[in-house]
């Protein structure tokens, strides 16, 4: 079993601590949190061992799980990598793309593995259809959340939209060609609602909307490709695959048939895969353990996390264009 420690025992950090403590692939050694008061409270309430310093925790583990505020990601990750520790780091990977590039170079130098916590890749609805998304040419995503003061220190693009940016980049096999976006700050100092139109070199277009001032929560994406439409509800963990095929010679009486202006007929049918319930956070943590033990590439590599950050920052930069 891999010995693991957690940096940061805030809201998400506590969730990671609980799941790592339950995991059969890790031995939870303990955690470090910069707040002495919070450290004592977490240790007393849950029984996890609190370490007095980052170095002390790092010396006791094989893997470090970074769940600290984004601004501190680079510094603590750099210390961990230089000590030869495998790194799981929450999204966004770092504050800047240059920092992410440096971390990638360091992991190669010190021969350790890294994974970024883009948890929606492990959402059971997305996993059920990901292999069926083939060369999508138009993608539309809406990620709407009710207002929560936690997280408003960063633009909504880095808080929410980056989830969909990563998901889109994982299924579009092409480089980003152009980005146009707009964002509005309503109750924060940074945009609370944003829309981005991302064009790829192969002609695919992704239209992404994110808001943290909505009346209801929504996390839906739709993927359009030749002869197929695929929808994913990340919140309700549901998916739908609608396909079209040439009409057979003797179609069923109840078959849904469309005919275009040229007279070409297509039959519509549903091909919905089964969604297997899971704990996405536990899955991402345990697949990282598998990547370490089997010496394979993590499902969400540092390179992929860095690219999601680069595109997210390009979206933010285009607000002022």
TrEMBL record:
Coiled coil: none annotated. It comes from Salegentibacter echinorum. Residues 155-216 form the GFO/IDH/MocA-like oxidoreductase domain. One of its GO terms (molecular function) is nucleotide binding. Residues 2-118 form the Gfo/Idh/MocA-like oxidoreductase N-terminal domain. This is Uncharacterized protein. It comes from the Bacteria. SUPFAM superfamilies: Glyceraldehyde-3-phosphate dehydrogenase-like, C-terminal domain (SSF55347), NAD(P)-binding Rossmann-fold domains (SSF51735). Transmembrane segments: none annotated. InterPro entries: Gfo/Idh/MocA-like_OxRdtase_N, Gfo/Idh/MocA_Oxidoreductases, GFO_IDH_MocA-like_dom, NAD(P)-bd_dom_sf.
